[in-house]
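Hey, can you fold this?
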Amino acid sequence: MESITKPKLIFFQFRHDQNLPGFTLLHRQQHVKCLSEFFEVILIHEDCDYQKICDKYQPDLTLFENAGNILDGCRPTIRNTHTHSQIPKLGLLNADAWCNSRAVFLSDMEHWGVETFFSICVTAAEHTPEIARNLFVWPNFIDAEIYRDYDEPKIVPVLFTGADYALYPWRQKIIKCVSQYYPSLICPHLGYGKRSTARMIYGEQYAHTINASWFVPTCGTIAKEIVRKHFEIPASRACLITEQSPALEAAGFVDMQNCVFADEHNVLDKLDYLFQNQDELESIINAGYHLVHSRHTLKQRDQIFQWFNLQKNLKPHQTVIQTSPFEPLTVVEKSSGLTNSHIRCNGLSLMLIHQGDKELESHRYDKAEVSYLKCLYHVGIMHEPKLRLAICSLYKGDAEKSLEWIIPLIKCILEIYKALDPDPVEWAYFIVSLLCLGELEEAKKRCDEFPSLSHIELDRVRWVVNLLTNATNPYVSPSCWQVSRASVHHLPTQNLNEWTKNICLMFRACGQSSLAIKLEAISLDNQLLELDDKNLGNSVGEKLKPSDMIQSILSGVLSKNLKRRNNKVSIRTDFRKRLSNKIRKISYKLLSPLNLLEARFGYFLPCDISEIRNDEFFSTIKELTGKEDVKTILLIGASLGEGMTDSVLNIAQKSIQDVTVFCLNGLTPQFTKLQKRYAANSSTVKFYQLPLNSTDSFTIDIEDCIKKIKVENEIDCFDMVLIDLSEVASDIELSNSNFYEPKFFILEDINTLQGCREYHYLSSAHTYILESQNPCLRGGHAIFKRIS
C-alpha cells in the first residue's frame, strides 16, 4: 500500500535546559509527538534565518512557540520572517491563560508577521480578549501509551497529586476536607523550575499510581481551566473528582456518569455513597476511561491539521472558525458575522479583577485595591492586577508607587524575556505616571520610543503629551488611524471624554493641577467630544534601553521617605476601647449573647473570654506553640487591642512551657499602653521600640532591633516570627533580610500590598513551605514553616 505523504511543518520551539523537571520535558515531547501524527515535523531550536530555513526545507506550514514563564530556556531569534508570504504561519501560546509571558507572545507574533494563534488553554481568549477573534484552541490531551489501565490493584482510596498552593483554591479545600476522613496518599509537588524534582513521580510511574487509586481529585486552577490531569486520571482508570466548569462539560464530562463534580460541601457525601455502591463507582470509572481514550488522546488533537487543510482551499469571502475547543473547525462566509466561539469559565482571578474594576469605576480605590491584591495572592505573576494597582495609586496621588508597580512589568518583558517592545497599555501608564510626577520632557521622550507601537490607551496618552508640550500644533485627525497592537490588558471601556476626565483626576491627586487645567482647556479647544477613537498601526519598534532617568526614578521609589502610619479608626475599635474594662466585670452568663454580637461586628471582648480563642488562625498558632516546642516569639507590629497581639500574649501566658514574647513596634499610643499593661511580666514579655524617626530605612531599623534582641537574650534563632502587617508603619523587605530564619513565619493581613509581596516571597523561598493559609478570614493570613 502506498504511504500517504504528510505535509511538512517547521516547528520553531523554545530551547529548554535539559535539567528542567522530567514532567516538563515530557510535555514538550508529547506536543511534538502529537504534531507528528499529522505532519512531518522539523524542529528548530536555534537562532536562524527564516528565509534560509524555508528555502532548505520547503515547508507547508510554520509554527512559532511561546513557552510560558519557564525562564530556564531560550527563545530563538528568527530573522527575515517577512519572506515566503505564501507559507501560512501560526503562533502557539504554550502557556497558562494568565501567564506573564503573553505580552512577549503578542510582541513576537507582531514582529514575525503571525496573525493566527493556537493556545493549549480553553480560557486563553477569556484572559486575552483582544486576540479572541484570531485565536483557536489546541486543548490538552494524553498519550495513550502512558496513561492506560495497568491492572494495578486498587489499594489507594484517595490520591492527591500536583501542586496545592494558592493557585489551586479548590484543591486546598478538598485535601483539607477529605484527608481528615479518608486514607489518602499525598504526593508532593516540588515546582516547575530548576529544583530538586528527583523525588517527584511522573510518566508511567505516575500513571501506575493513579491506576492503583479509586479516587483522584484535581482542578483547573483559579481559571477553571482544563489541565492534563483532567484527562490523565480517567485515562488511567481512576475516578476523577473535580470542580464543575463549562470547559469540562464541553469536553464531555458529566457528574456521576463519567466523573464526580464536587466541592467542599458535598465531596464527603459523594465519596461515602460511591464507596458504598461499588457497581456505580466502577461504571463511572469505566465511562471516564472510555471518554478520554475515544476523544482526548493525542490522536484526536488534530485542530492545527484541520486549520491547515481548510485554509488551503479558502476563498477570499470565507473564513475558518472554531465553535468549540472539542468540535471540528468549519468554514463560514465572512458576511455571516460568525467568529470563533470561546468558553467562558469565569474563574476566580477574573471575577476578582472585574469586582475591582467596578470599585475603581466608582472611585472606591481602597476596595478596588483589595480585590486586585486578592487576585495577586492567588497568581502572583499576573500582570492585569498589578497594572490596575498602579492606576489606583495614580488616583490616590502616589505616582511613585505607580511606577513601583509598572517598572517591574516593563522590565519583565524587555529585560527578562527580551521582547522587542513592551505591552502598549503598560507603556501608556508608565508615561502617565511620569506626567503625574511632573516629568513632561521625560514623558515626551518616552512617547517617541517605539513609534510603531500602538493601542488606544497609548495613542490617547501620546495625544495628551502632545497637547501639554506643543499645544500650538493642530491636532491630527484620527480618521487615518489604523489597527493597533493587542494588549494583555482589557481595561473597562471609556469614551475619550470620560478617559480625559479621569486623567485629570490623576493629575490633581498627584499635585499636578496645572496640567489638569491645561489639558481641560486645550482638549475643549480641540472639540474633544467630537473625536472618533481609533487605533494606530504597528511595525517593528526599537528595543527599550532604560535611561538613567528611569533608573533614578526607580531608585527614588525604593528609597523615598516612608509615610507615617495613619491611625486606624473603626467602629469596632472604638467600641472595644470603651467597653473592654467594663466587660471584664460582666457575668459569664452574658457571654453567649455577647459572643453572638462578636460574630456580627467583630471581636471586642477581652481575649480570654472572646470567641477569638476559637478563631481558626489563633487556634493554629496555639496548637503550633505547644506541639512545636515554641519558646521564643518575635511579634512585629505589637499593639494593645489588636487581635494578633492580644491572642499571642494570651497563648504565651497560658502555655505549660516557658515562652518569651518580644514585642516590637514604633512609639504609638497603643504600644505604650501595651507596655504598661505587661510591665509586671518583664521576664516573659519584653518590649523593643524602634527609633522615633524610623522613616529612612524601616527594614534596617527592624534588623538592628532584632540584632539587639538576639545579643541581649542570647538567641540564635526565633522559634516563631509574627508580623501584623496592618500595624507595621512601612515596608518590611523580607527578601533583603538576613536576621529572621525562624521555625515559623506568620503573616496577618496578607490582602494588602505589603502582605501580598511578603506572601509571594515566602511562597517562592526554597527554605519555607506553606503550613496553613486562609485569604478570606478577615484580612487573610498565612503560616510558613522552615524546612530543616
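Oh, and this one too while you're at it.
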Amino acid sequence: MKKQIAALLFIALFVAACTAGKSGMGSSAKTPTSPSVSEVKAEVEKDSIEPVKVEVAEAPIPDTLPIYRATPTMENDIIHTKLDVKFDWKRQQLNGKAWITAKPYFYPTSSITFDAKNFDIGKVTMAYNGVQPLKYTYKNDRLTIDLGKIYTRNDKYTVYIEYTAKPNEGGEGGSAAITSDKGLFFINADESDPNKPRQVWTQGETESNSRWFPTFDKPNERMTSEIFMTVEKKFKTLSNGLLKEMKTNSDGTRTDHWLMDLPHAPYLVMMAAGEFSIVSERWRGKEIQYYVEPKYEKYAKAIYKNVPEILEFFSNKLGVVYPWQKLAHIVVRDYVSGAMENTTAIIYGEFMNGTERELIDKDANETVVAHEMFHHWFGDLVTAESWSNLTVNESFADFSEALWFEHKYGMDAGDAHRREVMDGYMGESESKKRNLVDFKYNNREDMFDAHSYNKGGGILHMLRNYMGDEAFFEGVKKYLTDNAYKTGESHQLRLAMEEVSGEDFNWFFNQWYYSSGHPVLDVKYEYDEANRKVNVIVSQNQEPKDGVPAIFDLPLAIDIYDAAGKKPRREKIRMTKRTQTFTFNASTKPALVDFDGDRMLLAQKIDNHNEEEYIFMLANSSRYLARMEALESLRESDNPKAQESIKKAVSDKFWEVRQAAIQALKIKTDPSVLEKIAPLAESDPRSSVRSAVLAKLAASKDAKWATVYRNVLAKEKAYPVIGSAMQALYKVDATGAMEMAKKYENDENADLVNSIGSIYAESPKPEHIEFFERSLTKVDGMSGIGFYGSYLKALDKVGVNDLDLMTKMKKIHEIGANQSQSPWRRFAAAKALNDLRKRYKGKSGSMFTDLSKMLTEIIEKESNDQLKAIFSQMTVQ
C-alpha cells in the first residue's frame, strides 16, 4: 500500500506540510561492533557522564491486562477459494457463489467460521455433492458453519455458499491511508456522470475483502484463488494470476476465468472491470500489462514508468527472481488510497494518469510503481503475520523507493528521496511516537502511518549502510527464501541477518523496532592545536520517556577534510554514552570535520559548524544531504563568501541543489546573478529548476527578461514551467500574459490552471469567475490550495454580493464534504471556507454562522483522521 500521493506516505507529507516544520536527518556508517583503537587511532573518552535521572510517578496497579494485538489464531486453514460473481449495478451489490476448500489447522473441529460482512446468505451446503445442506449461524458479520462431523488436520473439505454482498450498506469506516472500507466499489453505477466511466473494483487491505466474499480476513492466512467474473462484453477485467478463459454468454455478457495458483493472503485478492485499453510487453517470458482508460493508451508505458527495468533490478538485487505469474497495473477512478499491491495486479488512483507533457519530471509515478512492485516480495511473497508487524511489508516498500532512485539516477537522487521521506516521519514524530513493531495499537488502521513507512524505511537504510550491501542483501535473500509464500515478522528478519553476518543484532532491533523515537543530537567540534588533536563532542538530548531510549547505540562515520578538499579521511566510531567525546590525530586544523559522513542516521541534529565550514561543505561534499544542509545554513547569510558559494552551487551536479541555490540567491544585493541564471530558464534539464529561474527573474520585475519569458512560452513542454513563465510575464506585460492565459484556459493540467488562476485573480473580470468555477475539480495538490485562494481573491475584487457569494460557497462545500474528492482538494475547499469565514467574524448578518455550519458539516463527513484534526483547528480560529 502506498500512502504517498493520496495514500499513507502522501498523507504524512501532506499533514507535515500543513502542521509541522522541517526536521533534519543524520547519518550512520558501517563500523565494527565496538570502537577499534587501530581504526580510530587516538579516541579518548574525555567526558564521564552522570546517570540519567528519570522521575517516575507512581501509578495505580492495573487489574486488567494491557492491550496485546496477538497474531490471529488459526482454527481452520483455507486451501483454495473459488468464486463466481455477478454485479447488480442498480443496487450496487454482488451476487456470489463461493467454493471454499479448507482443513483444520491442527486440532480436530466440526465447524468453520468465516468473516462475511453484511451479507445475505442464500444457501450453504457441503460442496462435494452440492445438495447436503449445512446448518449455520450468521451473527456480527461472522458466518459459522456446522460441518456435520469432526475433521482432523489430515482431512480436506469444501463448503459451498450462495450469498449477496451489500458493500454500500452497514457501517463504513476508513483511515488516513484507506479512506473507505467498503471493499467493493461501483463507480458511476447509474451512468449519471457523463465525464466518468463505469467501473467496478475492489480494495482488500486491511480486512475489507470479506465485504464481498467469505474468507478468513487476516494477513496470516494463505490460499490459492480463482474468480469467474461475469461482466458486460465491452468491459475488460483484471484479477490475480492468469486469465484462463473468456466465455461469451447468451444474454450478451461475458464470463472471464482468472486463476491464481500460488498461495497469497486474502486481502491481496482483487478484481476490477471497466472500459480499459491494455498495453502489453514481456519480461523474462512473463507478461506485463498496463490497463489505462483509452485516451491514455499511447502514454501507458510512461504512466507506469520503467517497469521491466525495475523488475530486473529488484530481482537481481534481492537474489530472488520476481516470483509471480505475471504483473498487471491498472488505474481506476475514485480510488480510496494511493495504490495497492494486490498480487500480480496493482491498482492505482487516477493521480497516475497523464499525457506525455504532464508526465515530464513526474517522479511520483515512478516512486509509486517501484513501491508497489517491491511489495511483491515484501508483503505478497512474505506477508506480515499480523498488522502489528506491518513494518516487514511497508518499511521495505518505502526503502525500495530510494534504492531504485539511487540505482537509476545516482546517489544524490536516492538521498534526496530519503530526505523527503524522513521529513515526513519527523513531522509526525512531533505529535506521535510509537514502537515500529506495535502490539498495542487502538485500531489496525493506525499502523499505516509515517512510522511503518517512513521511519521503517530509514531504519533499513541504516542497517544496509552498517552491514554493507553484500551482507545486507544476502540477509534479505535468506529472509525471503526461508519464508516464501508464508508470513514473516521482524524477528525472522533479525535472525536472517544474524545468520548471514555472524553478528548479534538484538541491539539494533531493540532500539529501532521495539523502542520509540530517535536520537536528538548536539555536535560540537574543537581543535587542540597544542596536542594536534580534533575533538568531536556529541550529546544525546532526547527525553527518555514513552519508550524512547536515554541512549541509542550509534555506529557511524566521521569524515575529516584537509584544506585541499580531497577525499576525506574516514574515522569509524560508535556512540554508546549519553555524552561522548571522540578524539583524532590531526597535524593541522581540518577544513571540516563532518559528523555522519554518509548522512544515514535517523536523528535530529544540531551541528555546530561555522560559516567557513559550511562554505567548504557546500563546495566539497559528495553527499547531497550534506550540501543541502550547508546551503540551508548559508542562505540567510550576508557574508559575501557565503553568497559566492551559493552562486557556485547553481552549477551543482544535482538538480535539487541547483534549485535550492537559485531560490537562495539574493538579487537585491547582487543583481548580476540574474545574468548567470537566466540561460537556465531554457537550458536546465530539470523542469522545476527552469521554473525556479523564472520565479527569480520575475522577482526582479525587470522588463529586460520579457524575451526570456516569451521564448519559454514558445518552446517549453512542461506545464509547470509554462505557468511560471506566464506569471513572470504578467509582472512586466500584463496584457500579453492575459492573452496567453486565455489560450490555455481549457487545459486540464492542474499546475497550469493554478497559474492562470493566480493571473486572473490580480485583475479579474466577471467572465473569469466562470473559469474558476469550472476548474475547481481540475486542480489538486498544493496547486489546488493556491487556486482556491485565487478564486476567493477574484470574487472579492469583482465584488460579488453576499447572497451570490453564499451560492458559490455551496459548491466549495460540496467538494469539501465529498469523500471521493482527493484529500488535497478537500483541504483546499475547507481552507477556502475558513479563510472567507474569518473575514465575516464579528460582522452583522448570517455569513459567519452559515460558513461555520458548512465547515462543521465537512468535518463531520471527513474520514481522514489527520484532516479532521486540521479542520477542527479551523473551527476554533
